[in-house]
Amino acid sequence: xxxxxxxxxxxxxxxxxxxxxVVRTRGQRHGPITRLMSPSxxxxxxxxxxxxxxxxxxxxxxxxxxxxxHSGIATVTWIMEGNVFYEDTTGETGKIPQGGLEWMQAxxxxxxxxxxxxxxxxxGFQLWVALPPELELGPAHSLYLKPDQIQRDGPAxxxxxxYGSAISLVRAPSPINYLSVSLKAAERxxxxxxxxxxxxxxxxxxxxxxxxxxxxxxxxxxxxxxNEPIDFHAETDVEFVVGSAVKHPHxxxxxxxxxxxxxxxxxxxxxxxxxxGSRLRAEGRLS
Length: 287
Prior knowledge:
This protein has two helices and 27 strands. It is mainly β. It is globular, with a radius of gyration of 18 Å.
C-alpha cells in the first residue's frame, strides 16, 4: 500500500480541513501507469471505489492495451491530456479526446481494450467502481462523453454524480461523486460531500496539495470517514480528482479481472467472460 510518512516540501495546493488524511500512497508504478488503489488494499477502505490507475506518458512510449475482460464493476476512463483509442464488445470503437470520458458498465461480462493515442503526451485516470447486486450480473453497456457533454460547477468537472448546478450524464449505479478539479495559483475551492457520503479521497495528477500534509503529483490521499467538507487552497496551478460516496455495504469477492458481492456471482461473471473470450477467439480477435 506504500503509505508515506516522510515530510514533503510545501507546494501547490493547501488543504484546510476538519478531516485528516489517514493514508497516503504513491502506489506501484508499472511503466507509464501507477496503480494507486486496488481491490485487495485501499479498495477495501474506499469501496465502492476499488481501483485507480494514474497514467502519464509520452505517446511514443505508450503500450497498446489489448482486449481484456471485466465483470461486476464499471470503469471510468478520464483523459486530462492527449487522447486514447478504444473498442469494446458492446460494439463501440473510437477515440476519447482530451477532456472526454468513457463509462463502461461491465455487469455480467464485457471485454474492452484500446491504446494510448496519437498525441505527444497522454495523462489521466482509470477508476473501477463496484456494482451493487442488482447490477453486477446485468447487461453490459458503455457511454462515451465528449468534452462539451461534461457539466461543470466552477473549477469542478462532474464525471459521476452531481455537484452544485452540474449533473453527470452517466447514471451512477449507487450514490457516488467523482470530480476532476483544476485550480489556478491562489484560488480556493471547498468540496462539501452530499449527505451520507462518508468515503472520500483525492488523487493528484499535476501540482501538489495539502491535506494537511503536502501531497505531490502521483499521490493519493484517503480521508477519515465523515461528511465534513474539505477546503482546497492552490498555491500554484494544480489538477486532481476527488471521489466521495456512500460506503458499499458488500464484501469484495475478487477475481483476476472481476469484483463481485458473492462467490456465486463471481463464478457466474467469470463464466460469462470466458464465453465471450471463446467467441472472440473464434472470430480471430484474440490470439
